[in-house]
Input
Amino acid sequence: MTRPGRYREPAVEKGIGVSITNLGHVYPGGTVALRDVSFEVGAGEFVTLVGPSGCGKSTILRLMTGLSSPTSGQICGPGGSSLKDTSIVFQHATLLPWRKVLSNVELPLELKMGSQMSKLERRAIARNCLQLVGLADSADRLPRQLSGGMQMRVSIARALAVRPPLLLLDEPFGALDDMTRQSLQLELLRIWRDQGCTIVFVTHNVTEAVLLSDRVVVMKSDPGAIAKICDIPIPRPRSDETRDTPEFVALVAEVRAALQQDQYA
Output
């Protein structure tokens, strides 16, 4: 254990690949949520799941975290290993209202490391994560003193505190206004580039999916399955101007067509 006062920033954990093969999930009562879902996520990739409500997007994330177990199929990390050390960010920030921002970001380190990590070390990591999301000056504020967009930044900082090789985000910007949402999309791309982790992202927003992703997995419902996987070969880094390019507009149309084909099939 590092002695108090001797903190050294740990190396950033690089992203890992994920293999999802013939994944199926049936809820108690017999409702089939997913059937025969297979796709790959490369190490360091940004992959987005998009589809109608009830198609199993969030269920896939829960299965990836281990919060639920699949009925059939498998989810594997490198070399067929089980996934571990994942972090997830939900649509709502779910911050503890009685803990200050810095203390909220420290929480996963407390739970994971316990007495193996000193308070000084936890504080240093948490402050670094707040700096990463642009909230270094808000460390001593309570969640209720922050805007919705700032609360989501804290939630992302908290997820990054444990240096996850795999970061899962379940519609994290869904409750935000358009201006804040577009700003945080670009912030997320910057954080992803700086951290080097693998990201699997869930959204209903097609333009958001295309802007962020290396690939978009288009899903259909009843039961949840893959309709199409769309490559997004737009050069990086991406910006607000990316949204106005003909290539971007064409890819948004391609993803929307895949969604509509399922809807009217």
In short: The CA atoms of residues 165 and 222 lie 32 Å apart. Residues 178-195 form the longest helix (18 residues). Residues 14-85+167-265 form a domain with the Rossmann fold fold (CATH 3.40.50.300).
